[in-house]
Structure formats: structure tokens, C-alpha cells
């Protein structure tokens, strides 16, 4: 029977996660973000959330703690969750050379599958490439305007 070294395995996993987060950031993406909503004033829960936030920071991730009073209703909690949802788009869009786009402009995205993502976005970066199949423009989308 093989004995596992839990601390060693956990350390290896944390190193791997940190590397992946660094690669995401180097590629121009935002780091992953852990959001914890604490309802009430349970000390054990607050300690747990604080420890998770510290773990996030050690691997380069963001974390956010939202504290609500114990009298918070289900409707208020659901409204808070809705406020925290990311309703935008982040990433790259590849197109032909038309329409013209350059850094600093805004791009209007239409999405039939996810209408909440539709809207105007800031263009962070544009890379144009030429090849045997024609020219392509890779547009990196930023914040929703």
C-alpha cells in the first residue's frame, strides 16, 4: 500500500494553479475571482472565507467578500447575487478585415444565445495577420461600456 503525502500533493497543485493563473494574466485576461457572500455573523464561516481569500491571493487570483446582515431575505440575497454576475464578454473575436477596428474603438457584439452579453465593448488590442487564406483581424475585447 502506498502512503500519500497530502501536503506535498497540495503544494504541487497550488504551484500548478499559480502557473495557470499567471499564463491567463500574461495572455491579457483577468485573473479568476472567488466571490463569497456571508450572511450573518458566524465566526467559523468568516474564518473559512478569510482563509479561502488568502489562498486565492497566494496563487494570484482575486477574491471578494460581501457581508450581509443575518436579517437578509432570500430575495435580497438573490438580488445581491444578480448584481455580482458578470454579464459581459471577455476574450477575442476573429474577423476579416471588414469592418475596420483598432485599439480604443468600441465594438458592438450581438449574441443570439446569450442576449445578456450583447452591447458595446472597448477594444483593447487588434492583431492583423495575412496568410494564404486571406487576412484576419483578431480583436481583443475589454470592458463593457
Structure commentary:
This protein is of the alpha+beta class and about 140 residues long. The chain folds into 2 domains: about 5-85, Leucine Dehydrogenase, chain A, domain 1 (Rossmann fold), CATH 3.40.50; about 90-145, no CATH class. Helices cover about 35% and strands about 30% of the residues. The chain is built from 3 helices and 6 strands; from the N terminus they run H-E-H-E-H-E-E-E-E. The strands form 2 sheets. Strands 3-6-5-4 form a 4-stranded antiparallel sheet, with no helix packed on it. A two-stranded parallel ribbon has the order 1-2. Helix 2 (about 45-60) links the parallel strand 1 and strand 2. The longest helix is centred in the N-terminal third of the chain and has 21 residues, at about 5-25. The relative contact order is 0.13.
List keywords for this structure.
two-stranded parallel sheet; 2 domains; Rossmann fold; 32% strand; four-stranded antiparallel beta sheet; 145 residues; single chain; 3 helices; alpha+beta
Amino acid at each position: 500500500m502506498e502512503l500519500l503525502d497530502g501536503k506535498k500533493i497540495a503544494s504541487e497543485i497550488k504551484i500548478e494553479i499559480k502557473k495557470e493563473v499567471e499564463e491567463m494574466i500574461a495572455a491579457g485576461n483577468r485573473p479568476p475571482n472567488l466571490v463569497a457572500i456571508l450572511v450573518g455573523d458566524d465566526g467559523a464561516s468568516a474564518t473559512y472565507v478569510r482563509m479561502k481569500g488568502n489562498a486565492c491571493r497566494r496563487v494570484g487570483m482575486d477574491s471578494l467578500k460581501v457581508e450581509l446582515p443575518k436579517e437578509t431575505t432570500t430575495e435580497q440575497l438573490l438580488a445581491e447575487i444578480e448584481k455580482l454576475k458578470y454579464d459581459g464578454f471577455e476574450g477575442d473575436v476573429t474577423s476579416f478585415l471588414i469592418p475596420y477596428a483598432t485599439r480604443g474603438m468600441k465594438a458592438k457584439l450581438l449574441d443570439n444565445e446569450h442576449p445578456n452579453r450583447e452591447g458595446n465593448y472597448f477594444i483593447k488590442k487588434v492583431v492583423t495577420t495575412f496568410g494564404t487564406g486571406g487576412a484576419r483581424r483578431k480583436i481583443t475585447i475589454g470592458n463593457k461600456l
